[in-house]
Specification:
The chain is an alpha+beta fold. It has one domain: RutC-like (60s Ribosomal Protein L30, Chain: A), CATH 3.30.1330. Helix content is 20%, strand content 33%. It is built from 2 helices and 6 strands. It has a 4-stranded mixed sheet with strand order 3-6-4-5. Helix 1 packs parallel to helix 2. The longest helix is centred in the middle third of the chain and has 19 residues. The chain is globular, with a radius of gyration of 15 Å. The termini are close together. 24% of the residues are buried.
Length: 132
Amino acid sequence: MTIDRIDPPSVHAAPGLIAQIVAPRHHDLAFISGQISWDASGTIIGVGDYEAQVAQISRNIDANLEALGIDREAIVKETIYVVGWTPDLLPIIVGGLRSTTAVPASTLVGVVSLAHPDALIEVEVVVAIPRD
């Protein structure tokens, strides 16, 4: 898989957290809808617990990636929405979402609420799928 991940020297870098530029070559893009901590039956997992919610979201993302025949290396962009954002949540959230050294371009947004009243985190991703 050829995906360039670039941090220009004149732009502040956050190694291991994000890549400033992610450019897939010879790939198509797929957009995975925002995932909250619903299990397969629609029950919110981890009410009031950021770590438990991010673990379920990670499982949901992995299931979507598996349906596409790819893994987390293919994630090129993520947007993370967090209710009650504080900087001390960063290691819990990012640590729970990352199982690879191939970091995506990333945006984190603190929000007042999400689509479900018990959801604390929502994550949407864009993935690169190699062309045949």
